[in-house]
Amino acid sequence: MINKVTLVGRLGKDPEVRHFDNNSSVCNFTIATSESYTDKEGQRVEQTEWHNLAIWRKGLVDVAEKYLKKGHLLYVEGKLRTRSWDDKDGNKKYTTEVVVDSFKMLEKRESSSNNPGEGQNFSKAPEPISNQSASQDSSSAKVENESDDLPF
């Protein structure tokens, strides 16, 4: 059985990071994907879907917190996970989200004096940040300027 999600979309807002007492953290954000088609009347219709994403791996959380911003174009790989909880009234609530295994920033970042980590421009997106680099410190996350074509 396979549980694999691949998305390319734009961040709907800046990622939110929560830190817990056990020294773990989670990064939550949404991305929008869209597709267009022509309906029966010949009108072009664009359909947008919003996806909830969560990053739990420390190295990935650190990189996401430092570099991802609202509007950035992102390539994401992960898996679907549904979780449940009881709300304050005791009602069972469910949510389905993409648990991120790796991501790749698909746009050149612009320099900004307010964002010291974003001072370097990239002509191409960095290599995907995956399980292997998640165990590394975020300052050593692999970033390359290679020019390679996207597989789609």
Provide an overview of this structure.
- With 152 residues, this protein is mainly beta.
- The chain has a single domain (5-140), classed as OB fold (Dihydrolipoamide Acetyltransferase, E2P), CATH 2.40.50.
- 9% of the residues lie in helices and 43% in strands.
- The chain contains two helices and six strands.
- A hairpin with a 5-residue loop joins β3 (25-38) and β4 (44-55).
Helix content: under 10%
For this structure, the CATH topology is OB fold (Dihydrolipoamide Acetyltransferase, E2P)
Q: From the coordinates shown, what is the CATH architecture?
A: Beta Barrel
What portion of residues belong to β-strands? 35-45%
SSE topology string: EEEEHEEH
Derived from helix and strand composition plus strand pairing, the structural class reads mainly beta
> Which outline best applies?
globular
Number of strands: 6
Report the mean per-residue pLDDT as an integer: 78
Q: Number of helical runs?
A: 2
Radius of gyration: 17 Å
The tally of structural domains comes to 1
End-to-end CA span: 24 Å
CATH superfamily: Nucleic acid-binding proteins
Strand order of the largest sheet: 1-3-4-6-5
Short description:
By secondary structure, the chain is mainly β. It is 9% helix and 43% strand.
SSE layout:
Layout: E1 5-11, E2 16-19, E3 25-38, E4 44-55, H1 58-67, E5 73-86, E6 92-105, H2 131-134
Parallel strand pairs: 4-6
Antiparallel strand pairs: 1-3, 1-5, 2-3, 3-4, 5-6
